[in-house]
Design a protein that fits this description.
By secondary structure, this protein is of the alpha/beta class. Among the domains are: about 200 residues, ANL, N-terminal domain (Rossmann fold); about 110 residues, GMP Synthetase, Chain A, domain 3, CATH 3.30.300.30. It contains 16 helices and 27 strands. The strands form six sheets. Strands 7-6-5-3-4-8-9-19 form an eight-stranded mixed beta sheet. A five-stranded mixed beta sheet has the order 12-13-14-15-16, sandwiched between helices. Strand 1 and strand 2 form a beta hairpin. The longest helix has 17 residues.
Length: about 575
Amino acid sequence: MGILDMKFFNFIGIKRKPKAPWQKFYQKKHMNIIVPNINVYEYFYNHAQMYLDNTAIEYYGNKRSYRKFLEEIDTCSKAFKSQGVRKGDVVSIISANVPEALISFYALNKIGAVCNMLHPLLSENEIKDILNKYSTALVVAMDITYSKIKNIIKDTDVYKTIIISAKDSMGFLMKMGYEVTQGYKVEKPRKSENYIYWKEFINLGLNYTEGSKSITGKDFPAAILQSGGSTGTPKGIVLSNGNFNAATIQAKIALPDLNSNDVILGIMPIFHGFGLEVSINDAFCVGAKVVLVPTFKASEFDKLLIKYKPSVLVGVPTLFEALTNNTRMENVNLSNLKYVIAGGDSFNKSKVNKINDFLHSHGAKTNFTQGFGMTEAVAAVSFDLKYASRPGSVGIPWPGTYVKIVKPETDEEVPYGTDGEICISGPTVMLGYYNDEKETNNALHIHKDGNIWLHSGDIGVMDKDGFITYKQRLKRMIISSGYNVYPSQIEEVLEKHPAVLDSSVIGIPHPYKVEVAKAYIVLKKGYHDNENLRNELLSLCEKNLAKYSIPKEWEFRKSLPKTIVGKVDFRKLQEENMRMRKNEK
């Protein structure tokens, strides 16, 4: 089934206004944002006209102006057209944060094609399954993925692969250095009718004389991003042009200090909604400079901050752990920072306080801010705004987005102050999961008010002013002797101990309590697992947690498994625990 053959939920506006106690923090016009009926490229193009001579991208010292960037997008769109790509076709981009991938993204959107964004570290079978699932006929892939692609490409419908490299946009000397130190290790294909390198591909666009623009509106699919969905199995989230453009409009309202003088570190990956929208698209639409970082090294974070002096840091927990744990940060001045924004996973109060203390001790005049979001709503749903902040919360819903808390697995709204499932309605809510009607219907419900609501699978609570406090994934909650046990609450307590660097808590089977908590702990350098430390942790839990929430098992590790976007992968811990218990039997 092709993308044009599918039936999607289309957001046509809020039919009946839900309760919105947070509206007092916005101007009235901001509660009813108007999303233009154009595609992502057109929205970006229209705004870029004001900043044509500004630097759009800096990549290893090589700078591109907005004028140059737009010219390259136009040429690239013609090159895609010359290779038979048309409106509605799905083209997969398997790449880290390099300029060629972004040029391809906007060029494909210009001609009405749909970008399927993939992580270059996926296994070859995962790549094969996804290419087949989305009937991909053309791929843009980094050369580092060729060793996998060559083994599976014959089992797909892909007729051409465009090879890009981390070195393509580097200056001459940097390019030579890269080739000598890293490039020579990368297996590369010979040029053939099935493989073409970026430079030759772009030349095809220079010789293409026909137009390359297709008319697509806000309800037309723009991109497919991968997520676990509500079952934990891979899902293709189909996001529309309107979803992206609405998110950009919201960001301009929620982040009013963001402007064309800003520098944003593009560390978050472009195959992730948070990275593609907040770090990249939002920045481009205000004329800011994006410094692309294809490979983030925690040990070199201080060098990035000193060299580029970013005014905006956008990241996930691992990035901010790298910030606070970098031993060379002592003399780094962070007074240039306007926004420090976290997404991808929640931070407990002790971690937030630790990061804020670090920022302020290095001259930052802003606070660390976190929000709640999910790829199914592009990226951000709520945010702890400068002018509407409540410590410990993930803020209020973004303008034009509505949130309510319901009794899990129902549409029944619960009173303020009561835990329940977070549901979202608004112009950033996805069209649906690609070719998966069952999973789409599990996630998107039409409630009694006639509005489409996205059921997040996350537990949270809203206060009477509309501030949301995130608890955790619904499927992560532990039921012990009939009591709700929240792993995130236990983790927050454990991380108050000066020896604890990181932790993760899962539920394990119990003969009569059904489940109890097990804690996985990573200690800071210089600390060791011993009886005294365990007693201290137990005492800390006894003082701060209900008896049924105290972990019954402890395991100390050097590190915790992480997902491809830097979250602690609690599912891997659950799987390991299940395998271990089966082996014991």
